Amino acid sequence: MAHLAIEGVSKLFGTTFAVRDFALEVGDGELVCLLGPSGSGKSTLLRMIGGFERPSSGTIRIDAKDVTNLPPERRPTGMVFQSHALWTHMDVFNNIAFGLKLRRLPKAEIRERVENALALVGLADYGRRMTTQLSGGQQQRVALARSLVLEPKILLLDEPFASLDQHLRERLREEVRDIQQRLGITTLFVTHGQDEALALADRIVIMRDGCTEQIAPPSTIYRQPQTAFVAGFIGSMNFVESHIRNGVCEYPLFPLTVPVEDGPVTLASRPEALAIRLSDRANAATVHRTVDFGTHKMVDVDLADGTRLKAMVAPDDRIQAGMKVEPSFTSFFAFRDNALVHESMPSKSDAEAGRLLPV
Which InterPro entries match (predicted)? Predict the structure, then answer.
């Protein structure tokens, strides 16, 4: 296991910051996901940790040792790329053994470590197959085994499942999480898929434009977003633009108490915290459509100003397209200039009454 410390790291390409003044500490055996849209700097940051890019400024330490300027082969890290990067002229065994041979280890030790790595990723009988004979998921397992066989202190995963179909991606991420916990290896996982981050991470780092928006465990990121960007990036979120006057929201359907200074505000609420009921009011909203997911229904609701909201309701709910409804927030956040200025959580009675479905 290992401790990683990233201290004020920046990366400039020309005059543009790909990463700006980034700081993070990752504890022994922790799995941290770097999550953000394309161009947010997460892969550049991972490559700097692995030694494939050199920071413009800042320091990277592994177990208190400064590795900022060390080349990849001298760092105690192993990196798995999205493209697998396997040698097609070698069989599986020799792909995995390549790094061990460079270290001039005895043949018997190489064989033992390769066989152990293959067993670890569920490919015990695949050593003599050519990589071109493998499926995409099997190739990614080989790429993972090739990194693990070197016994790195820190495992770096750069969107390793992006090219795989959804079901295979879900299965492999569960396997990777099991392997990571079994080995207790410190891991950084780059992804732009929020479902992967929520399923895998001990903590999530939300990045935007090379900077950190929020660092927290998945449940905190989902339930307590600190910026409007994080609120909209993780899960589904309803946003309503309004104005506060004398501590009250002026939007007709949402006359909520928001104890902040007068001015514009963005209200935000999860679909499971949006209650709807039939209404004959003149300014009522209209149900656009319903989608049945088996465990619940998702209802799209159009407000009079064109804003579309999503409500999560029970699967047997009789709400249908075209109905007039009145939406209300059972919990909500208020943001101004991207920053959280107020949050209202559901009362205990609301939760007990089942108005909020479990996340």
Answer: AAA+_ATPase, ABC_SmlMolc_Importer, ABC_transporter-like_ATP-bd, ABC_transporter-like_CS, Mo/tungstate-bd_C_term_dom, P-loop_NTPase, Transp-assoc_OB_typ2
pLDDT at 18: 95
Backbone angles phi, psi at 131, to 5 degrees: -65, -25
Residue 197 makes CB contacts below 8 A (sequence gap 6+) with 33, 35, 189, 191, 204, 218, 234
Give the pLDDT confidence of 228-257 residue by residue, as tens digits. 999 999 989 999 999 999 999 999 889 999
Nearest to 122 by CA among 84, 86, 148: 148
Angle, helices 92-102/136-148, rounded to nearest 10 degrees: 20
What is the average per-residue pLDDT within 6-12? Answer: 96
pLDDT at 354 over 50: no
Say if residues 72 and 50 touch (Cβ distance below 8 Å): yes
* Closest C-alpha to 335, from 214, 217, 253: 214
Q: Taking each helix axis from N to C terminus, what angle separates 136-148 and 166-183, rounded to the nearest 10 degrees?
A: 20
Helix axes 107-120, 136-148, angle to 10 degrees: 130
By 3-state DSSP, what share of the chain in percent is helix, strand and coil, each rounded to 5? 25, 35, 40
Domains defined along the chain, listed by start:
4-223 (3.40.50.300), 236-352 (2.40.50.140)
Q: Are 202 and 32 in contact (CB under 8 A)?
A: yes
CA distances to 133, 156, 335, 346 from 269, in Å: 48, 34, 11, 11
Question: Taking a C-beta distance cutoff of 8 angstroms, is the pair 92, 131 a contact?
Answer: yes
Digit-coded pLDDT (tens) for 26-59: 999 999 999 999 899 999 999 999 999 999 999 9
The number of helix segments (H) and strand segments (E) in the chain equals 9, 20
How far is Cα 294 from Cα 270, in angstroms, rounded to an integer? 19
User: Tell me, what DSSP letter sits at residue 86?
Assistant: -
